[in-house]
Amino acid sequence: MMAIMVEQLNVQPGSRVLEIGAGTGYNAAILSHMVGESGSVVTVDIDRDIVDEAAVNLSNAAYDNVKCVCGDGFEGFPAEQPYDRIIVTVGAQDVSPHWVDQLKNGGIMVVPLWFKGFTLSVALEKRDGELSSLSASPCTFIPMRGMWQRTEGYFPIGDPTGDSQQMTIGLEWDDQSFRRDLNRLFAQDARLLEAGRSLEGQFYPQDIFSGLYMSLTAHPGTFMVISSSEKALFQGFGYCLVDLDSTSAAVLSNAHPERVAVYGRDDTAYNRLIELLDEWDRLGRPSIRDLHIRALFNPPQFIPDGHWTIAKRSHYTWTLSWVS
Fold first, then answer.
1. Within 13 A of 263's CA, how many CA atoms are on the CB side?
2. Which among 28, 87, 89 has a CA at the least distance from the CA of 63?
3. Cα–Cα distance measured from residue 56 to residue 212, given in angstroms and rounded to the nearest whole number
4. What average pLDDT does range 170-182 have in this prediction?
5. How far apart are CA 213 and CA 15, in angstroms?
6. Predicted confidence band at 164 (pLDDT cuts at 50, 70, 90)?
7. Residue 154 class from Cβ within 10 Å (0-12 exposed, 13-18 middle, 19+ buried)?
8. Which residues, including other chains, have CB under 8 Å from residue 51's CB and lie 6 or more apart?
9. Which residues does residue 87 pair with via DSSP β-bridges, in sequence order?
10. Residue 310 CB: number of other CB atoms within 10 A?
11. Of 59, 169, 243, 261, which one is least surrounded by beta carbons within 10 A?
């Protein structure tokens, strides 16, 4: 993952680089080697012990063009802005407006971003009124701490004291009322209905570049779910479409790659899920490599055809598409 992110960053000799999350200093040493004597690296971490250890390691290895700073990474390090490159090595729920301000126009930022249960390392280029993705790769990181501590994560659904199946669901924040509704819905017996196609190998982490889940994010009721119950119709990762108005849900998983687990007596969620799968098929089953992500600084008056927005607690409007 470290190699993937450094490649995404496209560091050049002489670049000024800001790193959020110091670790042992190893990543900063790689960046220092790449920028050369004419470049510089600043690495910021909220933990003083980590900063001190990284500074000692870098000094012992004679990387003299790296500055180690103790501070909240959300704020970046304005004293040495602007930066040509910014790399974030902790999980973030969004890009900080401080990072955007401190990045040069035309500069590149690489940051692990959460998308409704799925985290992508996204390389974003700053161009005037937007950040536009250059590449994206699935990843997993420990969450950022400090004033911008993450609220999203996986939260349990199902009654742990009863016999209902145990699952967790990826949410932007812990919506306990929503989880209580899901408790009742998933306590019902499920039916297996045909998906009309095979989706074997399309579920993270079996195929980490599958674009299936990101294609479903256009629907506000779609979520990543994980089952830990031996009694469940699916185990491991799955994708769930929930429709509380009709009290129905439909779940895809590799346990039954040609079928859908349907909860509730109504087929509304199932029918909507099939429509989204049909749309993905018509697009040629695009992968993560085909995904384009934008963060717009100013809210757009309209969203072009073929693009969709994704709900994030953000300073920016996030749009995704399979077309540039």
1. 25
2. 28
3. 44
4. 86
5. 35
6. low
7. middle
8. 22, 45, 68, 69, 70
9. 19, 110
10. 17
11. 59
Q: Is the pLDDT of residue 148 over 90?
A: no
Instruction: Check: CB of residue 111 under 8 Å from CB of residue 119.
Output: no
Share of the chain above pLDDT 90, in %: 63
Based on its alpha-carbon atoms, the radius of gyration of the chain, rounded to whole angstroms, reads 21
The rounded Cα 45 to chain-centroid distance in angstroms is 21
Q: Which of 59-63, 127-131, 300-304 is predicted most confidently? A: 59-63
In 3D, which of 20, 11, 15, 6 has the Cα closest to residue 40? 15
Site of tokens 């659904």: 157
Is 309 in contact with 318 (CB distance < 8 Å)? yes
- CA–CA separation, 66 and 59 (whole Å): 9
Mean pLDDT of 53-65: 95
SS3 per-residue string spanning the chain: CHHHHHHHHCCCCCCEEEEECCCCCHHHHHHHHHHCCCCEEEEEECCHHHHHHHHHHHHHCCCCCEEEEECCHHHCCHHHCCEEEEEECCEECCCCHHHHHHEEEEEEEEEEEEECCEEEEEEEEEECCEEEEEEEEECCCCECCCCCCCCCEEEEECCCCCCCCCEEEEECCCCHHHHHHHHHHHCCCEEEEECCCCCCCCCCCCCCCECHHHHHCCCCCEEEEEECCCCCCCCEEEEEEEECCCCEEEEEECCCCCEEEEECCCCHHHHHHHHHHHHHHHCCCCEHHHCEEEEECCCCCCCCCCEEECCCCCCCEEEEECCC
Q: Nearest-CA neighbor of 214 among 260, 144, 280? A: 280
Give the pLDDT score at 323: 76
